[in-house]
Amino acid sequence: MRMRSDLGPWAVAALAALAGALGVLGSDALWLLPLGERIVHGSLPHAIPYATAPTPGWRDVPAGAQVVFWGLYHGLGGLRGLAVAQSAAAALGFGVLAASLRRQTAAGTALPICLLVLVGSLQAVLVISFSLFSLALFPVLLALLESETRAPSRRIWLSVPLLALWGNLHGEVLAGLALLACYLVFERARRSPALAVSVLAAAVVAIFANPQLWHTPHYYSGVLHSVVARRHSGLWAPLGLGALDVLLIAVVVVFLVLSVVGGIRLRPWEAVALLGLAVETVRVARTGVWLLFLLAYPAARALTVRVPRRRVLAVLTALLGAATVAVLVKGPADRGSPSLAQVAARAGAPVLAEAILGQQVVLAGGRVWVDNPIDAFTQADQRLYVDWLAGKPSGAAAVSHAAYVLVDPESSAGRRAARDPRLLRVAANREAVLYRVR
Length: 438
Description:
The protein is mostly helical. Among the domains are: 132 residues, no CATH class; 100 residues. The chain contains 21 helices and six strands. The strands form two sheets. It has a four-stranded mixed sheet, sandwiched between helices. Strands 1-2 form a two-stranded parallel ribbon. A hairpin with a 4-residue loop joins strand 5 and strand 6. Helix 9 packs antiparallel against helix 10. The longest helix is centred in the first third of the chain and has 24 residues. The chain is globular, with a radius of gyration of 23 Å.
């Protein structure tokens, strides 16, 4: 029986890897590349070098992520390298989840539970983005805490270097720190208060273990108080009734029903963490993926499923692995318009562009007025740029900061640009339109 169950996590990891390989490029992926190039060549950025708008006092905390993205992009053939990273992150995150669930439940239970988590978190898996590091590392930390809940040991100290690594890669490390704090305060402190306090203190210090050291809080303050965060737009959008949000809600309901029907009692630290994640998911929908990972544990403890035949799992894993390799060899589709971005970049003048288009201009050697990371810019420039993206009249002044405008014709900014008498159409294709400011 043990040999049969060993293939379950591999099958889950293979399925998640395929889903990640099918991902499309997100709006917060390409900006890491030019900054990573600077770091690799020995210069840690203290401003956004490709933007003409001022970025005073910006602190580059996730420098590690920028180096990783740059290395994968140039080492594995462009966007294919980023797709490989997304696929690997999904495989690691879901493989660890499946292996951890298997230690708590019947051998076959992890498969349907992980499948439901995957369905509910499609947005995190199918979009190649900066957050792929958290997709890989949150489940690792969660598995460690669940393991320590069952059999407390000094392995809890592994959470400290894990958070130090995570803090150099993505800002969702704050969610990891909060999760660890829930475990230490509501579970471990009852047995070993000195150990709990020591680990928590070391974990907080670990968050500062990045190139910006004591300036780290300044970076997170900028992110959390950015215009998009305060307006709950873009990646900070609240839970709604879109298709992916409805899937998330449906899976949460299924997990809650399983837990209640199965009479499973939540561990105190799990209950506190779930409450916090549920509240945050309502405010910021993308937090829901962490809610699902945690909910999977009580739901799995309430369910008993027979393990599939070993031969079936072996064949399924092999087929999924082969499909993943084939998809990654082909590479992801290129969003935006690299051709028009090159035309705009060759002009040598500042470009006002939407996120992916602007990043393509930068990769082609050009300059933009404002782009990601949006939190690096002044509040006034952030507001103006975000209003322009939304096609609001209050964003019209953004055009005066650029010599060219590059937009998706179907977007809010693109539709407004088509009616703007200040803009002269220079070139266009199905993906984008390039205008020159009169």
